[in-house]
Amino acid sequence: MSNWDYRVVEIKPNLVGTLKPEVVQDALTKLGRQGWELVAFSQPPMSAAIAVLKKERP
Q1: What is the pLDDT of residue 47?
Q2: Most CB atoms closer than 10 Å: which of 2, 30, 48, 56?
Q3: Segments making up each domain of the chain, as ranges
Q4: DSSP conformation letters of the chain
Q5: Residue 23 burial by Cβ neighbours in a 10 Å radius (0-12, 13-18, 19+)
């Protein structure tokens, strides 16, 4: 049975309240290179996006 570590990341929008796709992609790529896997993503209107990631414990 696998044991997981979880991480919740806030990705903030710009001053106008929009979130550019390349900002999200860059953040997720950086985390993916560290071994994190995206399991959920949510962005309420005019708010920061929330990404939930998991990584298997060694």
Answers
A1: 85
A2: 48
A3: 4-56
A4: ---EEEEEEEE---TTS---HHHHHHHHHHHHHTT-EEEEEE--TTS-EEEEEEEE--
A5: middle
